[in-house]
Prior knowledge:
Blueprint: E1 31-32, E2 35-36, H1 43-49, H2 51-56, H3 84-96, H4 99-105, E3 106-107, E4 129-130, H5 136-149, H6 152-172, E5 184-189, E6 198-204, E7 207-214, E8 217-227, H7 244-256, H8 262-265, E9 266-268, E10 304-305, H9 311-325, H10 330-342, E11 348-353, E12 361-367, E13 370-376, E14 392-397, H11 406-416
Parallel strand pairs: 3-5, 9-11
Antiparallel strand pairs: 1-2, 4-5, 5-6, 6-7, 7-8, 8-14, 10-11, 11-12, 12-13, 13-14
Helix pairs in contact: 3-5, 7-9, 9-10
InterPro entries: DUF3500 (IPR021889)
Protein name: DUF3500 domain-containing protein
Organism: Streptomyces cinereospinus
Amino acid sequence: MSVDHNPDTAPPRPGTPASVPLPRARGAMPVVDGILHADLLPPEPAFELTAAIRGQAEPYVGITADGTPTPGLYRLDDTGHRPVAAVEAAEAYLASLAPYERHVARLPMDSPQWRLWTNAIPTWVPKGMRLERLTVPRREAALAVMEASLSREGYALVRDAMRLNGALGELIDDYHDTLTEFTYWFTVFGEPTSGEPWGWQLMGHHVDVHCVFIGSQLVMAPVFLGAEPTSCDTGRYAGTRAFDDETGQGLRFRRSLTEQQESSFLLSRSVAAADLPPELAGPWNGRHLAGAGRDNLILPPEGINGAELTAVQQDLLLDLVRVYLRRLPSVHAERKLEDVARHLDDTHFVWRGGHDDICAFYYRVHSPVLLLEYDNHPGVFLGNEEPARYHVHTIVREPNGNDYGKNLLAQHYAAHHTPGSSH
């Protein structure tokens, strides 16, 4: 079951508006040097933007349908793909740092800092090294760890999302110490050369990636990738664009569904604020449910399931899943796709919004072993009050207890009697 990109079946390139709205009032948020000072915000945004801190304090359970993870979904296995290049790159990066820098650049594998991340701007002083503060050789060494861990497509998407953050700063000509290409914190967890589990986190605005290596297995979840806007036509980052496939393949699958099936999956025909309940109409989370601070989200499956789809529709749903799995190296992507295919009858899909070439929308693919969300948002730094196609958020989770590789880590430590923790 290949996850390679097939140009003959690729979705059409979604159109991008010729212009984006003017930015909001300059300096409207208390953001200085990459930190958001939430105590200076009004109560509602302050509460929403500190969700990660509250969520990290809860004992980890995982995203579940009813509060209890379904057992037996994840298993230790030998993929035959040892992460030699990633280990070597991580060791080279750590060796390039001064001893005092390593104290915050590398944390224990069981550190609670794994779960402290935000797709907005951190409201705390993050651990790890801020890429912008590193010398160019050291920053390139950090990026090399990511490049060695992800697929070519995955690394390119992460870098494009980072560049689009810089493009946003140029576009609105504001927050010049925060909306940059390298205002991201990179942290290594564990000892890469020890043979024991290890991993890394990249965290910042619109870019949150967690990679965990357990033997020859790789878990990449949670992942939050987004951009406002999704393309740039001028300036230093001209030609950069992202999320065409996540948008286009979502539309392709939606358009394969019939009017008779709409009662099973269509939650609303609009994502305009007036057409949604208040909890789904805010500017911070929009429609997505599994963002920062929601590690223990209780989310009963809803929508049409794989057993209700035609064979053609099932293939298109798996094509949509492939878009997100192509961020992993192929051996891991194909194994994960096989896992999703095994649970296809228990995989559910929902949609909000229209499905023409312009309108904003939301979709969710909810498998027992994979949760995907896509959402178009209103402007945060730009002035559009309603969701727009050019502001995208995407989320990948491993529900039932395997975000951050925690289920597999617990199995590893139990099997090998190795001191460690799954919290």
